[in-house]
Design a protein that fits this description.
134 residues, Rossmann fold, 5-stranded parallel sheet, 5 helices, 40% helix, EC 5.4.99.2, cobalt
C-alpha cells in the first residue's frame, strides 16, 4: 500500500492571516493526505528546507501580501536548486490577481487557486497531477 500524499502548506512572506491555509490544510487532511503546516511568516528558504526535510510530494503556497510574483517563483527556484522540483508538485493560492497567474505558472507553479475555489477542486488537482507514482 502506497504511503499517503504528503503536502507542505506554507505561508511565505509577511502575511499575518492564515485562515485560508488552515482551511485547505484541513481539507487535504480530511481527504487522506498527510499535511505539514509551516505557520506564518516563512522565508522561501525555510519553506524549501522543510519540504526537503519532510520529503513532501506537494508544496502548497498560500499568500495574501501581494508579494506573490517574487516569493512564489523564489520557492520554485530554490526547489530546483535542491534538485527536488521535478518530483514535487508546486501550487499556490490566495488573493492573486488573474493577470498575474500566467506568469506564476510560467515560473513553475502548476496551478493557482483563488478565493472561492472549492477545496475539492484543489484535492482533485493534486491527485490528478501528482508527480510521484502512487
Amino acid at each position: 500500500m502506497a504511503r499517503p500524499i504528503r503536502v507542505l502548506v506554507a505561508k511565505p512572506g509577511l502575511d499575518g492571516h492564515d485562515r485560508g491555509a488552515k482551511v485547505i490544510a484541513r481539507a487535504l487532511r480530511d481527504a487522506g493526505m498527510e499535511v505539514i503546516y509551516t505557520g506564518l511568516r516563512q522565508t522561501p528558504e525555510q519553506i524549501v528546507a522543510a519540504a526537503v526535510q519532510e520529503d513532501v510530494d506537494v508544496v502548497a503556497l498560500s499568500i495574501l501580501s501581494g508579494a506573490h510574483n517574487h516569493l512564489l517563483p523564489k520557492v520554485v527556484e530554490l526547489l530546483k536548486q535542491e534538485n527536488v522540483y521535478n518530483e514535487t508538485l508546486v501550487i499556490g493560492g490566495g488573493v492573486i490577481p488573474d493577470e498575474d497567474i500566467p506568469g506564476l505558472k510560467e515560473s513553475g507553479l502548476a496551478e493557482i487557486f483563488t478565493p472561492g475555489t472549492p477545496t475539492q477542486v484543489t484535492i482533485d488537482f493534486i491527485k490528478e497531477n501528482l508527480k510521484r507514482c502512487l
